[in-house]
Amino acid sequence: MPRLPDEPPFPQTEEEREAAMTGTEYQHPLMKAYWAQLDTGFKPIADVFEDVMAEALAILTREGLDAYLEAARVIGKLGRGVEPMLAFMEEWPTTARALGESALPEVMALIQRMQKSPNGKAITPFLQTLAPVARKLHSQERMGRYLDIALDLMERTTGSIHGHHTTFPSPGLPDFFDQAPFLLGQLSVAGLRNWVEYGIRNYRTHPERQRDYFSLQSADSRAILQRERHGTLFMDVERKLDLYLRGLWQEAEQLVPYSTAFDELRKPVPYYDKLGMRIPDVYDDAGTISGLDRYRVTLAHMVGHRRWTEAQIADNWSPFQRMAVEFFEDCRIEILLCREYPGLRRIFLALHPKPVEGACDEETTSCLRHRMAMLSRALLDPDHGYGDAVLLDYVRRFHALMAPDESGQRESSTAEIAELALSYVARTRRQSDQLARIHFADTVIDYRDDNRQMWKFIEEGDEEEAFDAKRKIEPGEELKGLPPRHYPEWDYHSQTYRPDWASVYEALHPQGNAADIDRLLLKHGALAKRLKRMLDLLKPQDKVRIRYQEEGSELDLDVALRSLIDFKGGATPDPRINMSHRTNGRDISVMLLLDLSESLNEKAAGSDQTILELSQEAVSLLAWAVEQLGDPFAIAGFHSNTRHDVRYLHIKGYSERWGDDAKARLAAMQAGYSTRMGAAMRHAAHYLEARPADKKLMLILTDGQPSDIDSNDEQLLIEDTRQAVKELDRNGIFTYCISLDPKADEYVSTIFGRQYTVIDNIQRLPEKLPELFMALTK
Amino acid sequence: MSADKEQYKVHQEPYYEAQGKEVALYEAAYRNRLPVMVKGPTGCGKSRFVEYMAWKLNKPLITVACNEDMTASDLVGRYLLEANGTRWLDGPLTTAARIGAICYLDEIVEARQDTTVVIHPLTDHRRTLPLDKKGELIQAHPDFQLVISYNPGYQSLMKDLKQSTKQRFTAFDFDYLGAGLETTILAKDTGLDEAAAGKLVKIAHTARNLKGHGLDEGISTRLLVYAATLIKDGVDPLDACRMALVRPITDDADIRETLDHAIDATFA
Ligand SMILES: Nc1ncnc2c1ncn2[C@@H]1O[C@H](COP(=O)(O)OP(=O)(O)O)[C@@H](O)[C@H]1O
Ligand SMILES: [Mg+2]
After folding, report:
1. CA atoms of A758 and A738, how far apart (whole Å)
2. Is residue B11 located within the same domain as residue B121?
3. Which of B39, B171, B29, B167 is CA-nearest to residue B102?
């Protein structure tokens, strides 16, 4: 991307960025420079410029911002009016967040293609639906497929009417872009391709009917949609798969879908790496096995590798040898998986091909794969029915290695099983194995991953993980104002407190724009309505019956009867035979403590919003809900930068209403630094302890485990926080943690005992947080 | 209520597998008549433990299942109307204090807090129980002991015990047993074979892994006993598990399907 000569400096600190935003008429030099970079005279762009820049600055990296402005400039100069430029400026930041900034060149390439064809009019609809499409696609790989489909549609429907030479624009293309978000909610990318293909084939030369088809007006268009909507879509079963991994295997891996059926030759195969488990975006039923079960065994297989496979050094082995080792090892882990859950065997066997003995001609064809697949079948299936003596011998030897001995069940090992595999290759080697013609029929076992984790290559250096440049709050000056308060910290090694260990500085959180919070509340209007109904249910329940009243609203039959009995028995009857009702029996003080550490800047899994933004929405709703109930509550945030600098930021105090001041502080909430949770909790507790309430609740919203940069021993701050929970409990404070960390199971119960919830789907935090509060206090 | 001690005795040894040192520790608490609180998730063996201890100590046991509508009179006692006047009837707590029984208030958090305060004078050195209505002050029998149980997993601030109540008890923290022990218990308690019992426990663990992810509480030992009992009676294990383990604990379709799958995968 060409750089302008006077490249504007990127705002370095939060203050600069803020200053860049608040200058009017782009008084601020940075805003002025950005505006100049756009080089546009469009009034509608000027109107939204500040808003879109606010979003872009929050999302894009420095390079990304440059590319963004440059691309916008180019689009503005296409000669198609303001619309496409406006759409791009509004949609791109969210798109970049869903897919990564590096998706831009591909997007621009398609725009150029449309521009150079008669299809320039489709650019605007393309850009207008780009962000929702990106959210559905979830990965750049799938976005590439989508762009290919669009390009294919464009090229094959442009100008072909009556043999004219590329003069007419594609009639259906703009409609296709309009419908794309909906279509991708229904179909896998492959399904979308088929649906488009049908439309092209049948209506290439019928402009009207083509439009009907691509705007989903015609009956056959909807029928084909239904037909292509087969199989089990990943997006429909994502939660079930999460629960499956967690419940049956105690794994909390991220799942990342890929699109299927685009590589005609090499179909993509599941795999896993540091970023998660990669699986197809759709699975059709296979015979009696449902798509959901196919997903499950695919995941189970990968879980098996993660549990039992040890990576082997690949350099010394030939490709044939490696292939054999993979087949043997895959079988080993599947047998171990079946020991855990015997029911898996049925599914494995139903999906595993059953190669026919002798189906491969050893004279003319390389039969290695065929031999291996047969062996694999035989290792898993006691009823394989093969007669080959060598094969039977190896099946026996394999099971001997896996057989239980005195010490219980044996697992064998990757290395041991690899040895057996090598010996099998040597025993069965054929001259014809080298032939180019390979027997593939019945040798593909499609629930197995590509085994990339099974090998280590010494020659290649370990690739450095490329981390996205992270945005950071610049270490500013120490918070001015109140002197620090010192709190002890628990040292679990010596089982003693380190006195005055952590210094907590407190301050009022800076203010932003209260209207932002009102906008968030408006956005969740429907949810608020639903919560309101729940709140109303909560209220009557705090109607308390006050019995034993001489004067009251109703006769208390029970008591009256007993008084009568007393009277008859000669005792003095109790005259307090009435009762009355008092509402608002709730006497709860609430403290909401927000972890404002750096990790909140990351975007939530499967969402285009950061955890920080979702927390903001959730806290707004919660604050609104608590205000409705009338419970006194306070909100504070914290982060830390070593034990010498724990910052505690007041967002709302007990004596304050949930009004513009508090909202403005919440609106300005930002994240940075680390999570010294114990110190923050102790400080929050000293406020809560001072409350007169009968019940005291401290809610802690966090996305990770306690940690700080001056603490290398992970356990230290976990143990300290656990200690803090105990201290609070002794002082009558009920702590409850809402964790957004999918891996929280490893430590959260250590700290909070049973008093926690892990929210897996962070996108639902805004509704979950208030619901949780209501459940806790009903 | 008759003050016949014998009827409250536990005559047959209840089957109980110790999780740790709790039996000896309970004996020590009883020797010194310290009040005891047993904490733990539903169906993990709290009641069984208390029953076992009562048997072991050969003391009468009076159990009260607490609920929201319970009043102090339900514990202490009240006057009843009779043909020829009124008659005082001791409540279970009073009976226990008179005859020297172990009084077990099960799931005490279910009771309202103004109800639970009546136990306070029984838990300190006074060991007394005032019957205000009757104008009587009972001095607890030397054998009397108070035991309460509660489930801290309820996760409701409102259903937590008052600090002033908590501070009066010694406490045991129970949890579900380890897989090995839980299997043994199932097998011994119901006569189901160890292999099948192990599978039931495995399914319980699947659910316990999902605690906090849509499940408030996992599958309890008690539900496992139900499932084992049904299987023992000839019910198909798949049906027994669905009926006794899954349906009772969740209405969440995704979780139900996942647990059903775990059942199929385990009982193949
Ligand atoms: N340690 C144990 N030894 C024997 N049986 C147990 C044990 N723990 C649990 N059980 C079984 O679990 C069932 C439920 O236990 P219970 O004591 O009723 O639970 P809780 O009182 O904690 O809700 C018992 O009926 C018993 O069959
Ligand atoms: Mg594999």
Report:
1. 6
2. yes
3. B29
Q: Quick one: residue A2, left, alpha or beta (phi over 0 = left, psi -120 to 50 = alpha)?
A: beta
Residue whose C-alpha is closest to residue A351's, from A267, A281, A291: A291
Q: Token digits for B205? A: 């663990």
Q: Are residues B200 and B138 in the same domain?
A: no
> What are the structure tokens assigned to B247, written together?
């349906």
Q: How far is the CA of A270 from the centre of ligand 2 (A)?
A: 9
CB count, 10 Å around CB of B122?
22
pTM, two decimal places: 0.65
* Partner-chain residue, chosen from B212, B258, B268, that has the shortest CB–CB distance to A758: B212
B139 and B215 inside one domain: no
Phi-psi region of A465 (alpha: psi -120 to 50; beta: other; left: phi over 0): beta
Summarised one tens digit per residue, pLDDT across range A694-742 is: 888 999 999 888 998 888 888 999 999 999 999 998 888 989 999 988 7
Domain of residue B146, CATH code: 3.40.50.300
The residues that bridge with A549 in the sheet, in sequence order, are A578
| Domain, as residue range, for B259 | 179-267
Specify the number of domains making up chain B. Answer: 2
SS3 assignment, position A420: helix
Interface of B with A (CB under 8 A): 41, 78-81, 85-86, 133, 152-153, 155-158, 160, 163, 206-207, 209-210, 212-214, 254-255, 257-259, 261-262, 264-268
Phi/psi-derived region of residue A276, left when phi > 0, alpha when psi is between -120 and 50, beta in every other case: left
CA A566/CA A572 separation, integer angstroms: 6
* pLDDT tens column, A418-454: 999 999 999 998 888 888 888 888 999 999 999 999 9
Distance B99 CA to ligand 1 centre (A): 27
Alpha-carbon span A759 to A766, nearest angstrom? 11
- B99 with B204, same domain: the answer is no
pLDDT mean over B108-123: 84
Average pLDDT, chain B: 90
What chain A residue is nearest to B173 in terms of C-alpha separation? A753
Q: Which two tokens stand for residue A763?
A: 């996108």
Q: What is the rounded distance in angstroms from the CA atom of residue A327 to the CA atom of residue A331?
A: 6
Among residues A210, A216, A219, which one has the least CA distance to residue A186? A216
Residue A637: predicted pLDDT: 94
To the nearest whole Å, the CA of B229 is away from the closest chain A CA by 22
For residues B78 and B203, state if they share a domain: no
* Shortest CA gap A4–chain B (Å): 51
Amino acid present at B254: D
Q: How does strand B128-131 pair with strand A588-595?
A: unpaired
| Structure token pair of residue B118 | 């009546």
Looking at the complex, report in whole angstroms how far the Cα of residue A341 sits from the nearest Cα belonging to chain B.
Answer: 5
- Domain identity same for B229 and B183: yes
CB contact under 8 A, B258 and A753: no
In this structure, are B239 and B109 located in the same domain? no
Of the candidates A198, A236, A189, the residue with the CA atom closest to the CA atom of residue A216: A198
Ligand 1 pocket test target in B21, B39, B44 with most atoms within 8 Å of CB? B44
Cβ neighbours for A564, distance < 8 A, ≥ 6 positions apart: A573
For residues B135 and A607, which has the higher predicted lDDT (pLDDT)? B135
In order of their start, the domains of chain A are 14-228 (no CATH), 233-456 (no CATH), 514-537+586-777 (3.40.50.410), 543-583 (no CATH)
Ligand 1 binding site (Cβ under 6 Å of any ligand atom): B 15-17, 19, 40, 42-48, 185, 189, 221-222, 225
Per the CB < 8 A criterion, the answer to whether A271 and A448 are in contact is no
Task: Convert the pLDDT of each residue in A46-102 to its tens digit.
Answer: 888 888 888 888 888 888 999 999 999 999 999 999 999 999 999 999 899 888 899
* A544-549 β-sheet, strand order: A544-549, A578-582, A554-555
Helices A389-402 and A368-380 cross at an angle (nearest 10°) of: 50
